[in-house]
TrEMBL record:
PANTHER family found in the cross-reference section: CILIA- AND FLAGELLA-ASSOCIATED PROTEIN 299 (PTHR33588:SF1)
Entry superkingdom: Eukaryota
GO cellular component: a single term: cytoplasm
Protein name: Cilia- and flagella-associated protein 299
General function of this protein: May be involved in spermatogenesis.
Record's keyword terms, sorted: Cytoplasm, Nucleus
Location of the protein in the cell: Cytoplasm; Nucleus
Main location, first listed in the record: cytoplasm
Keyword 4Fe-4S among record annotations: no
Amino acid sequence: MEADASRGHPAETFRSYEDLLDNHVKPLDLFYLEDEELARQLVQLGYRGSRKVMTREDFERAKAVAEEESRLARSEQQQQPLASMGTDLEDNFLRALAEREEPNRSGKMTSIIFIRDHNFLGHEISGYIDYCHRLKTEDFRQYFKRTKKLLPRSTDLSFYNWNTHICTTNSSPNFEVWTEDLGGLLFVNKRDQKILNVDPQAKPGDSSLRTPLRSDLYLQVLIFDHITRRKI
């Protein structure tokens, strides 16, 4: 399945201009042309696909801007104290989140959290949470201090209410959600396009690790860690 560059700027989605061109090259093109470079040139000239491909100059200019913004964001994050600092982490799950906070904030790792538990109405709910994204959009001190419980929401990567049967899926800044696979949900990392498979009967995928955890706070918790090899 192709990466959908419309979800984000191509300079943030693709490592190089060649990767951008390759995204528009079909297997059938390579079969007939038998030349990868020629296939790329046809894409660049606008002969393949319905969407206009940006020029190399525009791509490299946008790439430089994205890299500078990423550097500034990392610098700002490094100056901020971690939400888990100074908290009493007795639960295995909270300790695991604390260990992954800095790598997720700095972009070295992107983690997906699976939680199954009950909401305030007593309904059983479950879902997958983009940890990196939630870290950036809310104050996690309330979770580490246990003044509030971290639960999946309908705006997370996936959400299911076992009582009402409400089910939602949403892509995040870090992951695309694929629901067409017969094996179940797949998450595609937007930085390196690697697939993370959450099926317990399958391997999680290249550069990914599945960690089940015992917790006194939740019915079931899992963490899937994806190591980001390529920096933006």
